[in-house]
Amino acid sequence: MTLSEFKESLQQTKPSDKLPPLLRALWYDAKGDWHAAHDVAQDVNTKDGCWIHAYLHRKEGDNGNAAYWYHRANQPVCPKSLLEEWEAITLALLI
User: Most Cβ neighbours (<10 Å): which of 4, 43, 52, 53?
Assistant: First the structure.
C-alpha cells in the first residue's frame, strides 16, 4: 500500500480489517479519533508503537509524556509539524 492509497482509505467509515494495528492507529488519528488511535497504539509495545504513542501525546499537547515515549521509541522529539510527522510515521510503517 502506498501513502496515497492509505490516505484514500480515509474516505471509508472504518479502517480495513487488513490494516495492522499501528496503521489502524494512524488511520483513526487522521479521522480525528485520538482516543481510538491511542487505545490501539498503547497496546503495541514496540519502538514503532512508542513512536506513535509519542506523536499522539505531542498532538494532545502533553510534551513531557511525549518526550518519554520518544525516548522509548529511540526517536528524537519531532520538530516538524504534526502532519509531517504523521506522514513520516505512516511512510515508515508502509515500507
Answer: 52
pLDDT in tens, 42-89: 999 999 999 999 999 999 999 999 999 999 999 999 999 999 999 999
C-alpha distances in Å from residue 82, one per residue of 12, 23, 41, 61: 22, 16, 16, 11
pTM: 0.95
Rounded Cα distance between 47 and 36, Å, is: 19
Cβ distance 31 to 10 under 8 Å?
yes
HSE value, Cβ hemisphere, 13 Å, CA-based, for 2: 3
